[in-house]
Structure to design on (283 residues):
């Protein structure tokens, strides 16, 4: 199964409305509902918040990856939204625990394990692609659906270069013991 | 160094895989060999073999839920960190391990 099975231009929205995380999540859930991915906005958003409560989903570079498993999901997929406004989001990266996000990858995954199983490999492959700093920087700056699709579909060695990696790690000594 | 790692996050959908990729890239960039097992919703992938583990200088657990099969790593040097540490500071994690390992020798 190719990644295209999961990526769908119909659920890439470049003008996500809303000023708060909640407004943005609800707007995006609305797009998923309209496209037949979920059957209920409230249930879906509630399940997303359940995961949000367990730890931050802001991953720096203006990108957030809310996700969760929900019984409201009819079709597994990933909704990608570029927000009109920067949205304050809990962050794993920034020191004060919050970041401004403008690109949201909303994972839409069925709570039914058997149903989700076939797509989990693809979703995990897609998630793995977000572990590349060059890709993440380019995604954060992308302005079209095609650009976003291409950046996610291409291999690492096809990414090219960027002038500056966003939120680049500063190497420091960590307080770990083993 | 020869590094093996296991990643596992609560939902098993996103961080498990993003962190695996980030750690892999950081290790390679810093000149180390690395193999990472992911324990997520897609099941166990890229499973570490007995040989992988035997050859490893260090084992990294990057997780916020219990790692499965930890008895495999008995007797190894295990670095246990929250998954967010590996997400935020993968290179710092590896360079710190390198320094500490060198100091132990």
């Amino acid at each position: 199964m190719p990644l295209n099975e999961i990526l769908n231009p119909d659920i890439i929205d470049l003008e996500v409305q809303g000023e708060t995380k909640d407004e943005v999540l609800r707007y995006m859930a609305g797009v998923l509902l309209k496209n037949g991915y979920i059957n209920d906005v409230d249930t879906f958003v509630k399940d997303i918040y359940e995961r949000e409560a367990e730890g931050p989903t802001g991953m720096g570079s203006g990108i957030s990856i809310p996700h969760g498993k929900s019984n409201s999901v009819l079709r597994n997929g990933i909704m990608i939204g570029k927000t009109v406004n920067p949205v304050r989001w809990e962050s794993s990266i920034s020191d004060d625990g919050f970041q401004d996000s403008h690109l949201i990858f909303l994972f839409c995954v069925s709570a039914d394990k058997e149903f989700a199983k076939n797509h989990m490999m693809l979703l995990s492959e897609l998630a793995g692609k977000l572990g590349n700093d060059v890709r993440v920087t380019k995604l954060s700056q992308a302005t079209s659906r095609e650009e976003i699709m291409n950046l996610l579909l291409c291999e690492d060695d096809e990414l090219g270069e960027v002038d500056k990696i966003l939120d680049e790690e500063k190497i420091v000594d960590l307080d770990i013991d083993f | 160094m020869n590094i093996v790692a296991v990643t596992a996050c609560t939902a098993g959908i996103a961080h498990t895989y993003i962190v695996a990729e980030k750690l892999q890239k950081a290790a390679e960039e810093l000149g180390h060999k690395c193999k990472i097992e992911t324990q997520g919703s897609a099941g166990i992938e890229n499973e570490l073999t007995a040989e992988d583990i035997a050859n490893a200088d260090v084992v990294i657990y990057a997780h916020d839920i219990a790692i499965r099969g930890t008895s495999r790593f008995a007797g190894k040097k295990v670095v246990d960190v929250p998954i967010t540490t590996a997400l935020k500071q993968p290179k710092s994690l590896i360079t710190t391990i390198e320094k500490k390992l060198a100091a132990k020798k």
User: Anything to note?
Assistant: The first strand of chain A starts at residue 12 and ends at 16. The interface with chain B takes residues 51, 54-57, 59-60, 65, 67-69, 92-93, 107, 109, 113, 116, 120-121, 123-125, 127-133, 169-174, 176, 178 of chain A (CB under 8 Å). DSSP finds five helices and five strands in chain A. The CA atoms of residues 15 and 93 of chain A lie 25 Å apart.
